[in-house]
Design brief:
By secondary structure, the protein is of the alpha/beta class. Helices cover 33% and strands 23% of the residues. A 7-stranded parallel beta sheet has the order 14-15-13-16-17-12-18, with helices on both faces. Strand 34 and strand 35 (834-843) form a beta hairpin. Helix 5 packs across helix 7 (188-198), helix 8 (237-253) crosses helix 10 and helix 24 runs antiparallel to helix 25 (760-774). The structure holds adenosine-5'-diphosphate (ADP) and zinc ion (2 copies). The site of one zinc ion has 8 residues, from loops.
Length: 869
């Protein structure tokens, strides 16, 4: 809780008679589709899911905003969160809050404000927002329990009634949910009601056991009043041993000290039943003590002394340090190549806020949340660190959340949802790899953690750092316009000299790729970024090479294999994307209206635009050079693996493919084999995240950059650049140096050119020109409306209907600064048995169009979508 909040809460103010409670009810799912827009998108209308309840006298002194309370709702009790107070109620009959479920607020005043903002900005119902902000297991539900009445006359029962009754007699009291699972009667609900009316069964409410509970362990100590004469007899040898141990504990730790039962048994070398026998005899007392489930338990962190900053790093650090001293400035955009020391800066900033007695949130993409990353933070801040990611158990997550809330832990490192961690007195928010699209949640509320981070830092008056080697265009654009403060780290640091010398020993090489930063700073060395070679696949074709591997890439593979080094061959995940390309001149067919690549549909030999629905027949000749080698294009990882295996039968190959590797564990195993050097070549669709050093990788080959560039998405150029840059960052991470080879049919493409020179800002300028020309984000903003239906016709009809409504509204309101793209089938026109149609609203503030608009059920709303596929 920041100072501001603390002040708010200290000032005694009489509690107004009404509390506004956002009721967490699963009921809404049945009323509207969970992803549908609420009936009305007027700001205040998001609060229609918030209800007024009166505050009973007995809890007036304890009640505060952000608390979880029990409220009557319909015929049952539900939990809700107090989001505010009011002097009046909009309805006449206001029901009373039943009781407070948790005296400590689950949301701070700042987080309540954040929830309102999320709801408005992402056009998402507030109860869904709150659900997202709290860890699973905090909010409890209530079950309706049906109990049979004993000894009553039920001879007149119908067949259906008899069925339910015998179920109840067999199993005892059942919740409605259990009944629905156990019976096949379609009208079981009304049958249950009949039983209650007849007085054959009763119903009452019962709190559903919480999914996550505090963990309790039995603890013991010697009873105070035990006298020497009560001690276990000599014959009970084991009991004496255990008792002696507990007596010793009492002497050394004091009479109030409790010992975990299991620990006492283990220390005394007896089984727990021996200790239990002492309890039964009344010599030892027993109670239960809460313990924290700790995902970091058993990890020892070796403390690390922060390195001296290079002059470049120091310049960036001074700007951030100034803001930490006097927070409230603009967010920082820290643009630095991989290995330039961004994390070093985050660590320093975290250290500073912890010294100030404040807390910090550091977000990294889930995939980068490796043990290495955690260790880096743990080594500097072992006692206050919390981690939050999807692999935690429910209980672990719950405990981390509560320890953050009570201020025991003050620094959280986590993935997307950790932005909602209840860090009190927040002083710093960091988003590493801020361009990563995994920061966008693909379910309601469809928030982007970057936007939330900026907003949260603003509300909490905290320092905000967004870091990336390849910032999202949105962020760079804001930096250009002055909304963010740009800091740059263009040089890669290779770390300490002694570490490199060690590496040189291990790899039996002389070091040659580094030069000292400065004469007076001998421990840090700068490293060159690896050279990138672009191979023109059209030239390969002209030279008679029709294969997947260019001559240059083959030479590279051979050299690396001969030297016992490792190779990564990268292929875009959507490698089988079906765009149409001329293999002679590299020309790609694009929509004349949207300038995105057209997609080939083999069933009708048609090509269509997934933005605007433009259609045409697939040509048989290239409109650019009249070659007839024009065709759809795509390769899979399996093909690449086969080709490499055939060419180099002795090379050990692994395939790391998100689509084909089933389980997460299998995925990790494959990666492990490569990391430990059990394989020479990895063919993959996914880039290995930062934080995992692969010193033996000296060659990274991109099989075809074109499958990335030619996805029909406005961000495909940006994605290509980001990916190629990341790929380039994976090679040459050690003294062995390295090389990157990019194969492409469009070697002059700006994204490829800029990536090959590691030049972010050149790419930025070119790409912004394209976005400006077509009025794409970040110049404009988008809202994507998506409709899914099993019937393709229905989806199309819905899309056309809504399109008409929206067009009329634009005309009626005279909104020239808003237009519509589509309706069109999505690029993934059918997924999991459902056809997908979409309409994209484009404008400076496209939300205006959705105001006062009742969207038909079933529409998904995505504000600031990261993908239009
Ligand atoms: P980034 O987050 O930009 O990828 P890191 O902070 O991880 O960069 O730095 C890359 C490597 O260089 C790390 O091993 C880090 O400890 C080391 N390093 C960074 N700055 C320095 C420095 N000033 N002196 C010595 N080593 C450094
Ligand atoms: Zn051509
Ligand atoms: Zn189009």
């Amino acid at each position: 809780m920041s100072d501001r909040e603390a002040v708010d809460r200290d000032t005694p103010q009489p509690v107004p008679p009404y509390a506004v409670v956002v009721v967490q009810t699963p009921l809404w799912r049945r009323i509207t589709s969970p992803t549908a827009l609420p009936p009305d998108t007027e700001e205040s209308d998001y609060l229609t899911r918030a209800f007024h309840y009166s505050v009973p006298e007995r809890i007036k002194t304890e009640i505060c905003a952000g608390q979880l309370v029990w409220v009557p709702f319909g015929s049952r009790y539900l939990q809700g969160v107090i989001v505010g107070f009011d002097h009046q109620s909009p309805v006449e009959d206001t029901r009373e809050i039943n009781r407070i479920a948790d005296p400590l607020p689950v949301l701070s005043p700042i987080r309540i404000e954040l929830a309102h903002w999320l709801s408005r900005h992402y056009l998402a119902p507030i109860h869904r927002v709150i659900q997202t902000m709290l860890p699973p297991g905090v909010i409890q539900g209530v079950d309706v329990i049906v109990r049979p009445v004993a000894d009553c006359q039920t001879t007149q029962a119908t067949e259906g009634q008899e069925q339910i009754l015998s179920l109840l007699r067999q199993k005892g009291p059942l919740s409605l949910r259990e009944i629905s699972r156990l019976t096949r009667l379609p009208n079981w609900r009304s049958v249950v009601n009949q039983l209650i009316e007849h007085g054959w069964a009763t119903k009452h409410h019962e709190i559903r056991p919480p999914k996550a509970k505090p963990k309790l362990v039995p603890v013991v100590r010697v009873r105070r009043e035990v006298k020497r004469s009560d001690y276990p007899s000599r014959r009970a040898r084991k009991q004496r041993k255990a008792f002696a141990y507990l007596l010793w504990r009492r002497r050394s730790h004091g009479a109030d000290e409790w010992v975990p039962l299991s620990e006492a048994a283990a220390e005394a070398g007896v089984s727990p039943t021996v200790v239990r026998a002492l309890i039964d005899k009344g010599l030892v007392e027993l109670t239960h003590r809460q313990v924290w489930r700790d995902p970091l338990q058993g990890r020892t962190f070796v403390p690390v002394i922060p390195p001296r900053l290079t002059p470049e790093q120091d310049q960036a650090w001074q700007a951030i340090a100034a803001d930490l001293q006097n927070p409230g400035g603009r967010p920082f955009l820290l643009q630095g190549v991989t290995g330039s020391g961004k994390t070093e800066i985050y660590l320093r900033a975290a250290q500073r806020v912890l010294e100030q007695g404040k807390g910090a949130i550091v977000l990294v993409p889930e995939i980068a949340l490796t043990p290495q990353t955690i260790r880096r933070f743990g080594a500097r801040f072992p006692t206050v660190l919390a981690v939050m990611h999807s692999r935690l158990s429910l209980g672990e997550r719950f405990d981390q959340w509560r320890r953050l809330r009570n201020g025991e832990l003050r620094l959280v490192v986590g993935s997307r949802s950790a932005i909602f961690a209840p860090v009190s007195n927040l002083g710093l928010v960091v988003l590493d790899e801020e361009h990563e699209s995994s920061y966008k949640q693909e379910q309601t509320p469809r928030y982007h953690a970057r936007e939330v981070a900026v907003r949260l830092a603003e509300l909490a008056v905290a320092t905000c750092i967004l870091g990336s080697a390849t910032p999202a265009l949105e962020s760079a654009y804001r930096a250009e316009r002055g909304a963010y403060q740009l800091l740059r780290l263009p040089q890669r640091v290779m770390g300490h000299r002694h570490m490199l010398e060690q590496q040189a020993d291990q790899l039996h090489r002389v070091q040659r790729h580094y030069h000292p930063v400065e004469h007076d700073l001998p421990e840090a060395l700068y490293a060159e970024l690896p050279p990138v070679e672009i191979v023109d696949m059209r030239a390969e074709l002209r030279a008679g090479n029709r294969g997947i591997l260019s001559r240059s890439l083959k030479r590279g593979i051979e050299a690396a294999l001969a030297a016992g080094e490792q190779i990564i061959l990268f292929l875009n995940r959507r490698g089988a994307a079906t765009f149409i390309m001329c293999r002679d001149c590299g020309h790609v067919l694009k929509c004349p209206r949207c300038e995105v690549p057209l997609t080939y549909h083999s069933d009708a030999r048609r090509i269509i635009c997934h933005h605007c629905s433009y259609r045409t027949l697939a040509p048989s000749q290239c409109p650019n050079c009249w070659s007839n080698r024009i065709r759809y294009f795509g390769i899979g990882t399996q093909r690449v693996e086969q080709v490499v295996h055939r060419a180099y039968p002795n090379a050990r190959i692994v395939r790391w493919d998100l689509d084909t590797t089933g389980s997460k564990r299998a995925h990790e195993k494959i990666l492990d084999r490569f990391v430990t050097g059990e394989a020479d070549v990895m063919v993959g669709t996914q880039m290995i995240a930062k934080g995992l050093d692969l010193p033996k990788v000296t060659l990274v080959g991109v099989i075809t950059a074109d499958t990335l560039i030619n996805l029909p998405d406005i961000r495909s150029g940006e994605r290509t650049f980001q990916l190629l840059t990341q790929v380039a960052g994976r090679a040459g991470r050690s003294i062995l140096g390295g090389k990157v080879i990019i194969q492409t049919y469009t070697p002059r493409h700006p994204a490829i050119q800029a990536a090959s020179r590691h030049d972010y800002w050149a790419f930025y300028q070119q790409e912004m020109a394209f976005r400006r020309k077509h009025w794409y984000p970040p110049i404009s903003r988008l809202i994507r409306l998506l409709y899914l239906d099993t019937s393709a016709d229905k989806a199309q009809r819905e899309a056309q209907d809504l399109h008409q409504i929206l067009t009329l509204k634009i005309a009626r309101l005279g909104l020239p600064e808003i237009n519509l793209i589509g309706p069109a089938p999505s690029f993934y026109s059918r997924l999991r048995g459902k056809s997908r149609w979409q309409i994209v609203i484009r404008g400076t503030d496209p939300r205006v169009l959705l105001k006062d608009l009742r969207l038909p059920l079933g529409w998904r709303v995505d504000v600031d979508p990261v993908s239009l596929l």
